[in-house]
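pasting for the record
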Amino acid sequence: MTYRPACFTSPLRGLVLPLALTSSLALGACGSQASPSPTAAAAPASSSAAAGSAQSGSAAAAKTPSQKVNPNTASEDEIQRALEAAGVPNSARWAREVAEYRPYPTDDPSFGKLRQELAKYNPGSDVVNQIIATLTF
């Protein structure tokens, strides 16, 4: 069992960053009567971006360029990480399926054998295309 500090397990953990940013902005505004500094103006935009990315992790993962892996030589964990980076839903299950039907013919860059095996589970065509897009020989 791993140790997790209370700040990571508290139901209030989502409030820590916004409260810290609000406090720092309020303190910065009290210190000067001049116009706001560029960093104070930029802070709300970055805090909303940070909050948005923390709340929509899967959307951020979908936009992150993924690393392609060889389905014949990569471990199941490596395949799963590549699928997660590509935003494939239920990546652990699909990584198991990719690993289960190895080896794949290297002279078939469209992964016809894998597509046929995955079709048994009725995934959407977009899911199959995301899976195939993470694989290379």
